[in-house]
Amino acid sequence: MGEAKWYVVHTYSGYENKVKVDIEKTIENNKKLAEQILEVRVPMEDVVEIKNGVKKTVSRKLFPGYVLVNMDMNDETWYVVRNTRGVTGFVGPGSKAVPLSDAEMKPLGIHTDNVTIDFGEGDTIAVVAGVWKDTVGVVQKLDMNKQTATINVELFGRDTPVEISFAEVRKLG
User: Fold this and answer.
1) In angstroms, rounded to a whole number, what is the distance separating the alpha carbons of residues 60 and 122?
2) Alpha-carbon torsion 166, 69, 71, 97, what sign?
3) Is residue 149 within 8 Å of 135, Cβ to Cβ?
């Protein structure tokens, strides 16, 4: 058994969730595949839309027409994914699927390495790098997948939530 990596699968537009569900159903019906195809994701982002003067937060597909699959690539898993209804192929040259690198995965909020942190919600932290360097704030929220902490920063006289990478902060006290 090889090492599972993330692959990008191209789908018909609008079929992303259907492809995700179909691959997950196939895995459910074949326990051997469950050890080889670990996760299927349709990357989403929350966007604030203003319609008729009303602000509304909606989830939107980050990459319409694409699905991410974390799997151990072999003939069987390739065949299962490639022959799922709505899939047009893997992203890569010709019919060869190319896995995403760790650098390509980072902006998607998917991390392969587990990070341990010495602070939690309610703790005061100092930002030691990046745009908010030398800012001190109280952790409001932690996102372990994205490896970010949300702190309130005073901006234009009001508290504004800011997301900061774990790598850019240290605990005070």
Assistant:
1) 30
2) negative
3) no
Q: If you classify domain 124-171 with CATH, what class do you get? A: mainly beta
Per-domain boundaries in the chain? 5-108, 124-171
Q: Which fold has domain 5-108?
A: Alpha-Beta Plaits (3.30.70)
pLDDT digits (tens, 9 = 90+) for 67-95: 999 999 999 999 999 999 999 999 888 76
CA 66, 67, 73, 79: dihedral to nearest 10 degrees? Answer: -80
Provide the 3-class DSSP secondary structure of residue 169.
strand
Calculate the alpha carbon distances from 114 to 71, 82, 84, 93, 166 in Å: 19, 30, 32, 31, 12
What's the predicted TM-score (pTM) here?
A: 0.60
What is the arithmetic mean of pLDDT over 107-125? Answer: 74
> Per residue in 19-43, pLDDT tens?
999 999 999 888 888 888 988 988 8
